Amino acid sequence: MAHAPITLGISFKMYFGYAQTLDWCRQIANRLAHHPAVIDGRVSLFVLPSFPALAPVLDCFANTPVGVGGQNLYQAPPGAYTGEVSGAMLAEMGCRYVEIGHAERRRLFAEDDGIVATKTRIALAQGLIPVLCIGESDRGEPRDAIADCRHQIDSALALATPEQRSQPLVIAYEPHWAIGASEPASLAHIAAVCQGLRDHLSTHPSASVIYGGSAGPDLLTRLAGKVDGLFLGRFAHDPAAFEAIVNEASLLASNGSAARNESSASD
């Protein structure tokens, strides 16, 4: 059986301008489009730019394995919703991913569990992979965070059909208190919560659990085997830094493959 890839994603939020977005994406396409671990699927990459840059970013990554997606979608089919973007349009353009439920959307735009559930259903109906952002508001014990985040996952999938629940899904675990902080949550906390979420998603074989919230270099190595990847932010605004994390993921994936091959040979 093929092993799940290490997933690395980045959302630019509203940090980048138009030219900066395209410069970053062209550099990454040139550096990583032919990276062996990206080509053979051991490392899966996705990029979420601002809406005005989606079309040229899709062109940048055309004919590469790098996925592109939107940072948001509206919670209704196409219609009279001035200034909004539909899931149907994202899918038509060629997007593969869409971010849903980020803490900033909840805090600044009053998005609640009902809106998140509707957006998740629409994304799945359009064949988009939801990057479902979940996380507890306050620092506390892992068991409390697990319970909170499991509820958020169940709530987000409440409107999905059984068929839609079998579609790919990326869970981005981002403790709200760690977003934008100088350091991520502790390794023990991240590992415990992500394992608890993996156990909860055992009936969703196409789901992966990645960590965000001040994620940076060496975190993936220190969490080796405890998470399925990282959702990167400001650290990866430097294309060289993003490439370094891809190389780190490639090494971990290669070591993991070698270990599994040795285990199979000894059976």
Describe the fold and architecture:
The chain is an alpha/beta fold and 267 residues long. The protein has one domain (6-266): TIM Barrel (Alpha-Beta Barrel), CATH 3.20.20. 44% of the residues lie in helices and 15% in strands. The protein contains eleven helices and eight strands. It has helices at residues 18-32, 36-39, 54-60, 87-93, 103-109, 113-125, 142-156, 162-165, 187-200, 219-222, 239-266; strands at 6-11, 43-48, 67-70, 97-100, 129-134, 169-173, 207-212, 229-232. Strands 1-2-3-4-5-6-7-8 form an eight-stranded parallel β-barrel, surrounded by five helices. Helix 3 links the parallel strand 2 and strand 3 (67-70). Helix 7 (142-156) runs parallel beside helix 9 (187-200). It is globular. The chain starts with 5 loop residues before the first strand and ends with a helix.
Poorly predicted regions: 257-267
> Using only CA atoms, what is the Rg?
18 Å
Query: Do you know the CATH topology?
Result: TIM Barrel
In sequence order, what are the helices and strands, one letter per element?
A: EHHEHEHEHHEHHEHEHEH
* First-residue to last-residue Cα separation: 15 Å
Q: What is the highest CATH level, the class? A: Alpha Beta
Largest sheet: 8 strands, parallel, barrel
Alpha-beta content class: alpha/beta
Q: For this structure, what is the CATH homologous superfamily?
A: Aldolase class I
CATH architecture designation: Alpha-Beta Barrel
Strand order of the largest sheet: 1-2-3-4-5-6-7-8
The total number of structural domains is 1
- Taken as a percent bin, the fraction of beta residues is 15-25%
pLDDT averaged residue by residue = 91
Query: What is the helical fraction, as a range of percent?
Result: 40-55%
| Coarse shape | globular
Beta-strand segment tally = 8
Total count of helical runs of at least 4 residues: 11
